[in-house]
Prior knowledge:
Shape: globular
Structural class: alpha/beta
Radius of gyration: 17 Å
Strand order of the largest sheet: 5-4-3-6-7-10-9
Order of helices and strands: EEHHHEHEHEEHEHHEHEE
Strand content: 15-25%
Distance between the termini: 45 Å
Helix content: 25-40%
Amino acid sequence: MHRDYIKCSCCGLVFCHPLTVPDYADSHSGEIAGHYSYECYVDIGAGIESMIRPLIPLLTNSITDLDSFLDVGCGFGYCVKFANTIMGLKSVGYEPGEYGKIGSKVLNINVVNQYFRVNSSTEKYSVIFSSEVIEHIDDPTNYIRTLCNTLKPKGIAVLTTPNTNYLYHCLERQNDSDIKALSLLGPGQHLCLFNKQAMVSLLEKYGISKFKIFEEDASLIVYFSHDLD
């Protein structure tokens, strides 16, 4: 399928056309999630250190009253395990793909094998983590609203997503072989791509004024809260 990428002249958001959302519940089925495939992912492809890095400040900045953790789009579930064993939080992940089922058994963690929606949980969480998910969503504003409605009043949400500024930098250097730049586009899967300005616009559109955004190479790391110091 041919896809065009369109850039907003106001905020810099890049979105693909058409906005066709893949069925991630089937994306890792059959042989893809077979024994050798998931072992290869665990041993080589997971990037565990980069997954948990955005959570480290929650350990080192003396943030208090954290007791529960929700990972939306948790994949295999490494961050759910980290939050439970290292951060000491009651933790749950939501993952529609087959990796969530496997990770739940292998890591002995609580993973709900379905999409996280506005009515998925009546519980509110003190930490909500969503890494490399929002770019797969066709309605980012509603996604932010759903996370905020699930966040405790003094809780904190942590998002990561590809940074389009990195892609532009590669294009300026005419370096189309950069693996990070190529994966950033994620043809067929990444629907909305953000730079810092676009992320600020999204958060402010929903009325979130307490946030911090860091540009780390090819990624944006976003912290926001109802009450973020």
